[in-house]
Amino acid sequence: MALKPWYTVVTPREDLRKNKPLDASEFAVHLDHVREGRAPSVYQDPAEFFERTYLTKNLRDLSAQVVRRLSGIRVETSAVFNLSTQFGGGKTHSLTLIYHLAKHGSAAKGWKGVSEILSDAQVNEVPAAETAVFVGTEFDSVRGRGGDDGTPLRRTPWGEIAFQLDKARGFERVKAHDESLTAPGGDVIEKMLPAGRPTLILMDELMNYVSRSRKSGLGAQIYNFLHNLSEVARGRNDVVLAVSIPAAELEMTAEDQSDFERLQKLLDRLGKAVIMSAEAESSEIIRRRLFDWQGVPAEARDTIEEYAAWIQGNKESLPSWFPVNNAQEALRASYPLHPSLLSVFERKWRGLPRFQQTRGMLRLLALWVAHAYREGYNNVHKDPLISLGTAPLEDPLFRAALFHQLGEERLEPAVTTDIAGKDHAHALRLDAEARMEIKKARLHRKIATCILMESNGGQSRAEATLPEIRLAVAEPGLNIGSVDQCLETLTDHCYFLNAERNRYRFTIQPNLNKLLADRRASISSAQTHELILAEIQKLFGRGNKLEPPVYFPKKSSDIADRAALTLVVLAPEQTAAEPATVTLIEALNREYGMSPRVFRSALIWAVAEDANPMLDEGRKRLAWTEIAEDTTDLHLNESQRHQIEDHLERAERDLKEAIWRAYKNIFLLGPDNTMRKIDLGLTQSGAAPSLVDLILSRLRQEDLVAESVGPMVLTRYWPPALPEWSTRAIRDAFFSSPKFPRLLKPDALKDTFVRGLEGGLWAYVGKAGPERFEPFIYKRTLAADDIEFSADLYLISPERAESYLASLSAASLPMLAPEPTPAPTTPGGTIESPAATPAEISTLRWSGEISSQKWMNFYTKVLSRWVTSAALKLVVNVEITSPTGIPAGKAEETKVALRELGLSETVDVIRKP
């Protein structure tokens, strides 16, 4: 069920709806402005003021006591009150409330909440009283007040209070004391107060005046005046003195602190200390000040119940301080604000030196609500609650107010770089790139904002824990695991976010990510490209069962044309999606230098999908490598050094995985003689022992590559028009025609030939003349090593073999029966053997020159009989001389043939003079 957005359930104040939140100074009530009738209407109009004021228990208690005392009742009340505060509905606000009550008397009876005050005070109406207001931040004793407007000049607090109570007549009673800057004694104060009429005297921001007046002596005199006034008030039944003395401790000097403590002790001794707000009531105060509040609407019930159920279902993942079993009550007490939004101020911010518990926070929340209301309607953000993560950090005015409360303006770069305030802020970018669920929830942004708010409070170790973050940003319908994923992503990208053991904090100091970004910027493209090429070769060379791959060819002659399965790895920038890449592959697969390529089916092309991820990871690895080498110069701590080691290991893994993911495309010649592309899909290092293994595995699945072929496969592919098929032509067919399966090793065909011989599927022969075969091997066992791939050796069909046998007598067949040993001498050489009987001969040696035409006959007639019956050792000396010169291509072919036989490729070359 979709939960209703908060702004469709409750309505912010009109000025917030119009995006005109009051300035912070307007959240501060100026008693003098109220007295003079020039305060904003929300403070000046008593009915509106009471409508927006939540009467906390302590505020009701203060108001009731003041009304009782002004009514002449001394029981259960006090004449002197010392006001302090914890969170909201502050000192001056409380003074303003009792001022309106005393000033308007019985007219106050119809205002919201006054009936409860009268009930608590046990009186029927509020007595009208003479009132006097002294505000330390407003009154200046050097200039004084009056003297040029028809009123007497007042230079002291007592002169000003006397004038307010009884105009010129009241001032005359303390005029001499005002002029001499001396506090009046009790008897003078007694005469200064109106006789027989209730009197309320309010003194606010007293420390400000004391600090400014210390040099003139008035700082000390105000203490005496306050002492004397308190004693007089205590002796009267209908006089109340309410004083607020605090100044921000951050701004106090040692002398200020001393005077503050003296005044505090005095008032505590003679009067009653009153704490104006309790934590449990702070949300109600805020809701009255920021919304057209009539209590929690019925439409909010579903939101409260859904959130409470979600909290219960995930209680093991949430902070222990949150009242999980009373989640509904906590949500109802804070709606439309998320409970963690208000609790962060009470749990953490109250310890901040600059934290203004009423004025600044109301200003901050007013900006917040106004922005959330506007964003909700304009951008269709359907947040069920105003949560900690929705703080409008993109608004410079809000950021300024926030940093003022935190006392740390230097957080500006951290916020605008990592969270919001700039279009490319990391959290905003990560949300834009995330999957729809996270993008819609603005989860990266909310998490980062929550960490900022939780990790910059006044506690000794400012940090946001994982359970606190989950509580603040997760909501019904959102997978709580997404929070952990987004945290990991933020940790990898943000420049000012520090993470350690599931504890997070934003600081003014750049982290290793920033160091990495700066170092990455100094890595050249050439460095990166060189590393990528080396890593590609390392990965493709690992566990390779083929011939050594050909890496990054630029021309067709870079790729040998030979009958062997060859993997060709294109450079990373030559991607599969580029038409030019396919054109290049087709050209290189078709040509070999200036000639057509013969073995076109032997080439398998590995092509990257996209080079950018590899380049990014390569640049990152180079950067971490440089940082790891410079840890001493960078003045890093031990923890950061360990992190760098971890980052370097991870960068190496990430680069490896980027190469695996990139080289997912295989090209090879298809049956229709056009290039066929095979997409390996999502590739990763765990899929196979090596990249080559992965490629071969896929090609095996599609029967495009085989370890070996059976004899019947060869008979199936036998060209009908060929009565005989040379062994070299057979081998070459498997690597030139895409109709044949590609063999991992060409020598696998020798086993195929042997099995076919044993089964009588063909005969293995050499031509000794038009109608004569030497050798002729048929239906016999032959070792695979004895088979050669040659243009002069053939396979013939069994029908032709049988026909040949029938045309010859058994004696004429050289391989059907052994022949007597030939004469010990031949025209080409001599046989050396000891003079002994045949049974005693241990070694035979022969050397001589044989014409190339008789080489196969020499093997058949002389050597074949010794292959299995004795230890035959051949030492061959070959010399090839041509009067016209030997082409370089022929020499290269000779080396290739030697390599195919597993022999040394070393060939002595004599150049023509």
TrEMBL record:
Matches recorded under Pfam families: DUF499
InterPro entries the UniProt entry points to: DUF499
GO MF annotations in UniProt: ATP binding
Coiled coil: 634-661
Keyword annotations of the record: ATP-binding, Coiled coil, Nucleotide-binding
Protein name according to UniProt: ATP-binding protein
Annotated source species: Steroidobacter gossypii
